């Protein structure tokens, strides 16, 4: 079976499992405990924090370990905006193609704290323009929150240029890098906050991080013992932190070579599908996209039926974000790109992993997609 849903999750890397194993067994202490067992755990936690910070281009003290990407995005959006309310900043700018963890956080702030939310329009490829963001930012804007790369269509935003707009207005920029980690460079983006998730880069599910620059006020969402410098209470997941640091370092070391190889294979696969399947249309930016992501609509053909046909042929893929699985509604990302709701419901997403692909695989996979669409269409 060929697993092509790596945007949803990836397996734990063997090196990561070995790195975290001691902190599940022998070095099991609570890092807040004031004895040698706890101090050993605290030392490992500090080391992991420094390693994560290095990959993100942040300082060690900026890193807050979380239970995953969703919590990291919640902490960034809610935490930064709530901390800014007392200064009269009650406005938030996001795009309509963001992950649910950002959009639902924005909706929470709107409903319960009276925060005004501006949806920054995207073009038909899911790109946010500098002019659109500049028009959205106001004097009372507390935060701009943008996904580095979209988890459904793969479009990569020009975060550096967008960040310049936010900086010139004195507004913090939060970047959701959950999907781009391991594929794109994260250091040097100029972001004030960056979110990552372990299970996208080869660490287990249940660990993530938010790096927030020290000058940005952050209201904690979890209250208790004051761990993580008071920004996220709760006994730290030391093994998870070590796993995240190891996975990020490995992915960063391999990034250039993996992105080049997988990117070329994905582009060949895209070209094959578009040439073989009349109904196929690529979604997202054709060039500025994640190296391993290819998402299509198949007008007039059931996307779910195509997925079933592909699985019968040994190919596992998805219709979009795993976080929206089970919903009958068309993708909010595709709708924001101006795609007709009926066409949006025909989408199929293929996301490749980091492992080298056989030279013949892109062409063979395109053939399997063509066979599956023909089977569903009855031809």
What's the arrangement of secondary structure elements?
Elements: E1 2-3, H1 14-20, H2 36-56, E2 63-66, H3 69-84, E3 91-94, H4 100-113, E4 116-119, H5 130-136, E5 141-147, H6 159-168, E6 173-176, E7 193-197, E8 208-212, H7 238-276, E9 280-282, E10 293-298, H8 303-312, E11 315-316, H9 332-336, H10 341-344, E12 348-351, H11 361-377
Helix pairs in contact: 1-7, 2-7, 3-4, 7-11, 8-11
Describe this structure in words.
The structure is a single chain. The protein is α/β, with parallel strands linked by helices and 379 residues long. The chain contains eleven helices and twelve strands. The chain has helices spanning 14-20, 36-56, 69-84, 100-113, 130-136, 159-168, 238-276, 303-312, 332-336, 341-344, 361-377; strands at residues 2-3, 63-66, 91-94, 116-119, 141-147, 173-176, 193-197, 208-212, 280-282, 293-298, 315-316, 348-351. The strands form three sheets. Strands 2-8-7-6-5-3-4 form a seven-stranded mixed sheet, sandwiched between helices. A three-stranded antiparallel sheet has the order 9-10-12. A two-stranded parallel sheet has the order 1-11. Strand 5 (141-147), helix 6 and strand 6 (173-176) form a beta-alpha-beta unit. Helix 3 packs parallel to helix 4 (100-113) and helix 7 (238-276) crosses helix 11. It is globular, with a radius of gyration of 21 Å. The mean pLDDT is 96.
């Amino acid at each position: 079976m060929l697993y092509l849903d790596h945007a949803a999750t990836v397996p734990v890397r063997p090196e990561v499992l070995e790195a975290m194993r001691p902190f599940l067994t022998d070095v099991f202490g609570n890092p807040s405990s004031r004895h040698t067992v706890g101090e050993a755990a605290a030392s490992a936690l500090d080391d992991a924090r420094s390693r994560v910070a290095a990959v993100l281009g942040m300082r060690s003290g900026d890193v807050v370990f979380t239970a995953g990407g969703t919590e990291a995005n919640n902490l960034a959006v809610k935490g930064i905006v709530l901390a800014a309310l007392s200064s009269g900043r009650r406005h938030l700018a996001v795009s309509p193609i963001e992950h649910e963890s950002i959009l639902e956080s924005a909706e929470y702030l709107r409903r319960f704290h009276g925060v005004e939310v501006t949806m920054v329009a995207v073009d038909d490829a899911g790109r946010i323009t500098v002019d659109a963001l500049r028009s959205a930012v106001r004097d009372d804007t507390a935060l701009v929150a943008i996904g580095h790369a979209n988890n459904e269509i793969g479009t990569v935003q020009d975060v550096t240029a967008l960040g310049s707009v936010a900086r010139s207005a004195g507004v913090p920029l939060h970047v959701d890098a959950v999907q781009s980690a391991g594929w794109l460079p994260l250091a040097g983006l100029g972001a004030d906050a960056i979110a990552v998730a372990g299970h996208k880069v080869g660490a287990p599910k249940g660990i993530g991080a938010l790096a927030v620059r020290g000058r940005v006020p952050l209201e904690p969402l979890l209250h208790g013992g004051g761990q993580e410098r008071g920004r996220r209470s709760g006994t730290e997941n030391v093994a998870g932190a070590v796993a995240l640091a190891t996975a990020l370092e490995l992915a960063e070391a391999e990034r250039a070579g993996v992105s080049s190889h997988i990117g070329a294979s994905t582009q060949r696969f895209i070209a094959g599908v578009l040439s073989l399947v009349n109904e196929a249309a690529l979604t997202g930016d054709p060039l500025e996209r994640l190296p391993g992501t290819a998402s299509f609509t198949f007008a007039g053909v059931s996307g779910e039926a195509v997925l079933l046909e592909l699985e019968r042929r040994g190919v596992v893929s998805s219709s979009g974000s795993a976080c929206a699985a089970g919903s009958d509604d068309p993708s909010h990302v595709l709708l924001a790109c101006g795609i007709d709701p009926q066409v949006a419901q025909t989408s199929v997403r293929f996301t490749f992993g980091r492992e080298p692909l056989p030279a013949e695989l892109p062409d063979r996979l395109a053939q399997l997609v063509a066979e599956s669409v023909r089977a569903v269409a009855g031809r």
